[in-house]
Amino acid sequence: MESSPDFLPESDGDTEVELLPNLKLAGVTEPRRREKPVLKPPKTADAENIPLPPSPPPLSSPSEIYSNLLILEESLRQQYLNQRQSQRKYSTFYFVLLSLTAYLVYSQIYPSIYSYVFFFHRFCLIAVLSTLGLFHLSGMYTKKLVYPRKFIYNSNRGLRGFNVKLVKTGGYFSSTVHLVLNTRVFSTENIEQWEEYRLGYFERERKKKIKEKKERKERKEPVRS
């Protein structure tokens, strides 16, 4: 029976024998363990060092509020008048196209005795129908005839947050618009002050225009000796 090597410990049979002790052999190196990267928290700016945006200066008096409302009203009035003028122009154009279409269709149902007149009417009918189709497909009908009718409605949807309303005054041919304060938010005193401010401004502008017109007239007149 072979004898066990000297470096093996004797075992009594009850305990396990460690056959491979932690020995470092020549020429063999232990594998390096990969170190887990340490995640550093992202750098955040200190909230105390961040400058806050400057707040707008508060309005000092109600006259400044009325002045801003007057500027807004004048802008909306100009847009309303421009759209009304554009609507009338394109309404006339659209009515002419419809009238030509009706006449040319009639000329095809009851044709002329002259063949060249009949074919000329047919060519014109194709041209007019093509123009009507392009007028609708390009969106010009909606932009020039539909949107101007809804200008006041669309404007009031945007003005709802300011507690003001755009209303129409005057007749069909000489209509205009002006702003009205919301009676549920503003008091009767504020509404009366706004109306007085508006009327006073327009009265001053009217007198100013009369004075300028008079001065221009005086400059044009020759000096009598």
From TrEMBL:
Ranges where the record places region Disordered: 1-60
List all Pro residues biased stretches. 51-60
Q: Which InterPro entries match?
A: Spo7
Q: What is a GO molecular function of this protein?
A: protein phosphatase regulator activity
GO terms for cellular component: Nem1-Spo7 phosphatase complex
What spans are recorded as compositionally biased (Basic and acidic residues)? Answer: 30-46
Q: Does the keyword Transmembrane helix apply?
A: yes
TM spans (from-to): 93-113, 119-141
- One example of a Gene Ontology biological process annotation: nuclear envelope organization
Judging by the UniProt lineage, the source's domain of life is Eukaryota
Instruction: Please report a single Pfam family linked to this protein.
Output: Spo7
Q: Which key words are in the record?
A: Membrane, Transmembrane, Transmembrane helix
Q: Which PANTHER family match?
A: SPORULATION-SPECIFIC PROTEIN SPO7
Please report the name of this protein according to its UniProt entry. Answer: Spo7-like protein-domain-containing protein
Q: Which organism is it from?
A: Yarrowia lipolytica
